[in-house]
């Protein structure tokens, strides 16, 4: 029999997570939601899936036509909170407490804003590199880049300033990669996405 956390602990965890979301950068929330979602699928624990759905619902993402050098923007959508919630419901198995939490998340009004992060989708080949030159970011504001690919890919992201200096990178072995930094002045930055894996596929590039 799978271990169940007490209902009070479940509710507390979700409430605490909701309070934390207001203090975390939007794309960091999106990244955390994906990480929790993957853990929930791997462990069969619906609490991770419910928390992932709530976190992702807190950020509105808008599509934008953007492609790397020599590439083409593609139709598609990112993993949305509804998908995460549907996965959680499959694991709940009639548990009334968890079902109630899922219903609460579905009924919550999104706290995202229409001027929030944007995303674009392209396909990267095995061992491929995509370069996005001259993306503008405002000085003094926290800048975020998040890359989310299909499971089985190994995506890295690197950010360089207009002088070619590396300002941020994430090269962990993972299908997701995140960079956050605070530019000193207004400037344009080059984003490089690398696929270190032997499997290609679609990924989304998200920026704030």
Plain-language structure description:
With 208 residues, the chain is of the alpha+beta class. The protein has five helices and nine strands, in the order αααβααββββββββ. It has helices at 7-21, 26-43, 46-57, 81-92, 96-107; strands at 62-63, 118-124, 129-137, 143-149, 155-160, 166-170, 176-181, 187-195, 201-207. Strands 1-2-9-4-7 form a five-stranded mixed β-sheet, with helices on one face. The longest helix is centred in the N-terminal third of the chain and has 18 residues, at 26-43. The radius of gyration is 18 Å and the shape is globular.
Widest sheet, order of strands: 1-2-9-4-7
Distance between the termini: 43 Å
Largest sheet: 5 strands, mixed
Structural class: alpha+beta
Count of distinct strands:
9
Helical amount:
25-40%
| Unreliable residue stretches | 1-12
The number of helical segments is 5
Relative strand content:
25-35%
Domain unit count: 2
Secondary-structure element pattern, one letter each = HHHEHHEEEEEEEE
Structural Rg: 18 Å
What's the mean pLDDT score?
Answer: 86
Global geometry: globular
């Amino acid at each position: 029999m799978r271990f169940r956390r007490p209902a009070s602990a479940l509710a507390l965890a979700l409430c605490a997570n909701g309070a934390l979301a207001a203090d975390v950068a939007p794309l960091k929330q999106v990244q955390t939601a994906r990480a929790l979602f993957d853990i929930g699928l791997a462990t069969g624990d619906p609490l991770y899936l419910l928390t992932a759905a709530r976190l992702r619902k807190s950020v509105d993402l808008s599509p934008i036509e953007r492609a790397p050098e020599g590439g083409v923007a593609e139709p598609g959508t990112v993993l949305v909170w509804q998908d995460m919630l549907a996965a959680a419901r499959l694991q709940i198995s009639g548990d009334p407490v968890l079902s109630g939490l899922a219903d609460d998340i579905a009924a919550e009004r999104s706290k995202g804003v229409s001027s929030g992060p944007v995303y674009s989708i392209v396909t990267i080949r095995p061992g491929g590199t995509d370069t996005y030159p001259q993306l503008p970011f405002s000085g003094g504001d926290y800048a975020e880049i998040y890359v989310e690919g299909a499971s089985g890919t190994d995506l890295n992201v690197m950010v360089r300033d207009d002088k070619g200096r590396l300002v941020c990178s994430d090269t962990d072995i993972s299908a997701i990669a995140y960079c956050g930094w605070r530019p000193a002045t207004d400037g344009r930055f080059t984003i490089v996405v690398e696929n270190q894996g032997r499997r290609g596929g679609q990924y989304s590039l998200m920026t704030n």
